[in-house]
Amino acid sequence: MKDTFKHKGLRQQLVNVLKTKGITDANVLSAIGNIPRHLFMDSGFLDHAYQDKAFPIAADQTISQPYTVAFQSELLQVKKGDKILEIGTGSGYQTAVLCELGAKVFSIERQLELFKKTSKFLPKLGYRAKKLIFGDGYKGLADEAPFESIIVTAGAPFVPKPLLSQLKIGGKLVIPVGDDVQIMTMFTRKGQKEFSQEEFGEFRFVPLLEDKN
């Protein structure tokens, strides 16, 4: 669990790459610059940790490309104390970014192997989510709703209705929608039954699977 000057230097290079790709939110860039991404990957892949690429982790999942993590985080416009639901804990890297931004994070993971690993690992790095849950992300987390934001970190063939219903008025759902290629989509809740929708181009994610626990 070492984080060296070399790692910190590589992170700053990564931050510069993200700036050139259009990420402007200073808090998001600072979070990416602070979090030791190499610790979220197997030690054999240290050389890849600070490249702007997705990378395989356990259970046929991936740790998302830093640009994608930064892009989704920037869309959320996180304020300190925001209650955020994350669908797809995965390696916990996006969870750590949200914690670093001061959010109260509730995160759901459906792969038991990843859930067990990440639940132990995140607190060791000092990132404490409010709750890490093993379960079906399509259902959201009605017990803790409403949320300021909901972020989905896997490709969804459709938008799960429970997630929209668990947003506060004014709250945002950021979700990659589509089968092979996803369109990054943001829904903002304008009223009880009223939502606005914006699209932000194509991304590639591993699929969000339903009822597969």
Mean pLDDT over the residues: 92
Strand order of the largest sheet: 5-4-3-6-7-8-9
Through-space gap between termini = 30 Å
What is the helix content?
Answer: 25-40%
Q: What percentage of the residues does DSSP assign to strands (E)?
A: 15-25%
Integer-rounded radius of gyration: 16 Å
* Number of helices, counting only DSSP H or I runs of 4 residues or more: 6
Outline type: globular
Structural class computed from helices and strand pairing: alpha/beta
Can you write the helix and strand succession as a string?
HHEEHEHEHEEHEEE
pLDDT < 50 stretches = none
Say how many strands there are.
9
The main β sheet shows up as:
7 strands, mixed
Subcellular location: Cytoplasm
InterPro entries: PCMT (IPR000682), SAM-dependent_MTases_sf (IPR029063)
EC number: 2.1.1.77
Function: Catalyzes the methyl esterification of L-isoaspartyl residues in peptides and proteins that result from spontaneous decomposition of normal L-aspartyl and L-asparaginyl residues. It plays a role in the repair and/or degradation of damaged proteins.
Characterization of this structure:
- By secondary structure, the protein is of the alpha/beta class.
- The protein is 29% helix and 25% strand.
- It is built from 6 helices and 9 strands; from the N terminus they run H-H-E-E-H-E-H-E-H-E-E-H-E-E-E.
- It has helices at 5-20, 26-34, 66-76, 93-100, 112-124, 161-165; strands spanning 55-56, 62-63, 83-87, 104-109, 131-134, 147-152, 167-177, 182-189, 195-203.
- The chain has a 7-stranded mixed β-sheet. Strands 1-2 form a two-stranded antiparallel sheet.
- Helix 1 runs antiparallel to helix 2 (26-34) and helix 2 (26-34) packs across helix 4.
- The longest helix has 16 residues, at 5-20.
- It is globular, with a radius of gyration of 16 Å.
- The two termini are 30 Å apart.
- The model has no long low-confidence stretch (mean pLDDT 92).
